[in-house]
């Protein structure tokens, strides 16, 4: 990594859930977000859009990741 460049990460997440109550929906969303955070920390995503699934494999949304670098401000 060149010390003269600043590293940037753009990350957009869109999730959609349907369920029996707000409390259940909040739990499902939190579970998916925790799993995404772990995957981001492990550098499992390349640039671009990726499908997001819940823990049983049902598609629930997308994540967009864009790594870039530029001159320091």
Describe the structure.
With 73 residues, the chain is α+β, with helices and mostly antiparallel strands. It has one domain. 27% of the residues lie in helices and 41% in strands. It has one helix at residues 22-41; strands at residues 5-15, 48-53, 59-71. A 3-stranded antiparallel β-sheet has the order 1-3-2. A hairpin with a 5-residue loop joins strand 2 and strand 3. It starts with a strand and ends with a strand. The model has no long low-confidence stretch (mean pLDDT 93).
Q: Which regions are unreliable across 5 or more consecutive residues at pLDDT < 50? A: none
Helical element count? Answer: 1
Helicity range: 25-40%
Tell me the span between the first and last alpha carbons: 17 Å
Strand order of the largest sheet: 1-3-2
Major sheet size, sense and barrel closure? 3 strands, antiparallel
Count of structural domains = 1
> What gyration radius follows from the Cα positions, in whole Å?
15 Å
- How many strands? 3
**Strand-pairing-aware structural class:** alpha+beta
Assign an overall shape: elongated
Order of secondary-structure elements: EHEE
Question: Topology, pairings included?
Answer:
Elements: E1 5-15, H1 22-41, E2 48-53, E3 59-71
Antiparallel strand pairs: 1-3, 2-3
